[in-house]
Amino acid sequence: MLIISVKRGRWRNKGGIESGDKEFQARRPQAISRDGGRCRFCSVKLEKMHVHHKDDDHDHNSLPNLWTADELCHAVCHVGLLGKAGSITYLPAMSQEDISHLTRAIIVVIARGGKDADDARQLARYLIAKFSEPVTSTFGSCNPAELGNALLQLSDSSYNSRVTTMKDMRVLFNVDVLSKSAGSIAKVLYPKSQDDIVGDWQRIAEDIDAKAGMQA
Ligand SMILES: [Zn+2]
Fold this sequence. Notes:
The structure is a single chain. By secondary structure, this protein is mainly alpha-helical. The chain folds into two domains: 10-77, no CATH class; 82-215, no CATH class. Helix content is 48%, strand content 8%. It has helices spanning 22-34, 71-77, 96-112, 115-139, 144-153, 156-160, 162-165, 182-189, 201-215, and strands spanning 50-53, 66-69, 86-90, 169-173. It has a two-stranded antiparallel ribbon with strand order 1-2. Helix 3 (96-112) packs across helix 8. 33% of the residues are buried. It binds zinc ion (ZN). The site of zinc ion (ZN) has 9 residues, from helix 2. Zinc ion (ZN) binds at residues 39, 41-42, 44, 69-70, 72-73, 100.
């Protein structure tokens, strides 16, 4: 299960979430090949995949520690770096992995334009507004950078207990910020028509609401 995380060891090296030394660069293709090119969290296979250090140590480049991940699932592992690309929400009804799939569908529909694009954008905004509200009212913010900073301050044991304390919290992505990936996602996942993606946005919204209501 994909749990919101931060790179607590980030002061050990500089650079972004794909940073690493020559050893990492050499092992990277081996990890992707071992995983069949698929994200170890949500199973998606895209043209551009990331490789995540599972134990949070970017100097630990043994193959079992290197997990293939797509851009979205990987961003959840480094939530402090998300900036305006996402919001923290309380959303037990959907797994973080399913949110990655839904987000990709929304991004592609928006990129294709037309009325469905308006509906998809509206759905994305509705989900963020609705499910970030409990987080904002409880913690004062749904900003991933602020949550990331808070997670960096915790003791190791408090941080590790987020597997329980944060099990119902999810990142919902800002689809406007992520739109530049739409072309390559569409080519790989949705090569045919709009109908392949999803037909009824209203139904999806109601479904998520109903499940969230049951678990609240
Ligand atoms: Zn994934």
